[in-house]
Structures are given as structure tokens and as C-alpha cells.
């Protein structure tokens, strides 16, 4: 099975997957320049989340929106909230930051709207814009530090082979591939479904990074072992043999995780579905990148194939 032979096809598939995500990230940035390429939740941009459950007939989302608009003030501009149904009898409502007093007025108005039916507050969370901005900076710093730590660790762990820096760099490139896939998919979900990136999304993203690097190291470690056994085999054949040896294990391990996540996405409830779907897509991307991106990058680097690219351009120009 010659997997490495088709490495440029795998790179092309990655581009085909990533480019639409980048386009939707640009569309989101254009539509919400204050938030950036993703539709941010209150954890990052600040605001209030109110989840309510109705014992009687649930009002329409337009009626809930009218209540928010009626209670909006200059000090608390909570108008135009984002309303999402939770099951058949509840709503999740996101708005600008509000006080407990304003929340009480909203709940009272909802009870009056429902003909005196009881309204139960399932969750009320409020985050100031300053705290949201600080969380956003911390999230970006966490991803940057993860990339640096991975590069240093793999460089140190593979110091016994030639060019250990290449292994760390290839792992970080594969990790960035997975980050771009996850961000792109999140931008698409935000554009079409109104999903917002919250703290659970960041948790899923960091988990994906961990899974991706773990699977990449498994393949790299087999390359390192085989490099001491098959000293006379050319590097491309050695790398391909290492991938084939670890292919069954990598796919079996990731399929076990994916089956579990699929069950959670289907039956785990609305509150964790966003988190689980992002995690599922990210782990699928991580499995692909560790096998079809990270290791082929080592071969491209070893063969210095970019010289052939530029040589062809010069020949065509001549």
C-alpha cells in the first residue's frame, strides 16, 4: 500500500476542506467586525444568557423578543436577543449584559404572557465585556503556547534522529490544519445555524489539538524505530512502511472515540450537542492530518521537493 505516493492529493483535499471555512470566516468577520471571524458567545464578547422553561404553552420567539425590546434601556441595551429553542418547552436567550433586576422583570413579563403559567429559570449567566475580552486573549494565548510546547517537546523527544526540528514543525503544521478545519466548520455553523463559540467550543478545540498531536506522535515514533532497523531503505519507503504499520491502530482508536461521540451527538441532549459535534469533526480531521499530512510533510522536506517546483517554473519561463 503506497500511501505516500499520493501525498499531493492529500494536501489538495485538505485545501478543499479548509478554503470554504476560510470564506465563511471572512463572511462572519464582515457581518460582525466587532467579534471577528467567529460568532462569539457571551464567554468571549460579554453578555447575558437566560434559559427559561414554561409549564404551560410556550410563547413564540417573537413574543419573547418583544419583551426584551420593551425592557431595553440606554444603560442596558438588551434588545434584539438571540433566541434558540430548548426542547419543546424552553428557550435559551442570549443578549447584552443585564442586571438581576432586569432579569426579574423579564421573567415576570414572560409569566404574564403565558397566562399566569410558571416560568422556571434554568440558568442565568452574565459576563461583562471586559471579562469576555480577557477570556478571548487567554484563549488565543493558550493555543499559541500549545503550539510552542508541542514543537519543543517533539524536538526534544526525537533528538536521537536526524533533523528532529522537522518532526516538531510537521506536527505543528498538522495541528494548525485541524485548528483551521474546526474554526471553519464553526464559522459555517454560525452562519447557517446561529451557533456561537463559547467556553465549551474552546475546550473542544484544545481537546482536538491533543488528539491530533497524540496520533501524529504515534506515527512519528514508528518512523523513528524503523529508521534504526531499516538503515539502507530510502526515506520515502521507510515512512510509507511506518504509516502502514500504524494505520490499523490509528483508525481503530479514533473510530472508538467517534462512535461514542456520535452517540452523544444523537442522544446526549441539546446542551452538549454543539460541543460534541465540534469535537467529532476535529478528531476526524486530526486522524486525517496525522496520517495524510504530517508524515508526508517529512518526505517533502527530506526530498527538498520545493526545488523541483521552482525548477519547473524556471524551465517553463525559459
Task: Please tag this protein with its features.
four-stranded antiparallel beta sheet; 318 residues; elongated; alpha+beta; 10 helices
Kindly describe this structure.
The protein has 318 residues and is of the alpha+beta class. Helix content is 70%, strand content 9%. It has ten helices and four strands. The chain has helices at residues 7-31, 42-45, 61-71, 100-113, 129-157, 164-193, 199-229, 235-267, 270-303, 306-317, and strands at 47-54, 82-86, 90-95, 119-127. It has a four-stranded antiparallel β-sheet with strand order 2-3-1-4. A hairpin with a 3-residue loop joins strand 2 and strand 3 (90-95). The longest helix has 34 residues, at 270-303. The protein is elongated and about 80 Å long. The two termini are 38 Å apart. The mean pLDDT is 88.
**Sheet with most strands: strand arrangement:** 2-3-1-4
Estimate percent helicity. Answer: over 70%
Count of β-strands? 4
Q: Could you tell me the mean pLDDT?
A: 88
CA(first)-CA(last) distance: 38 Å
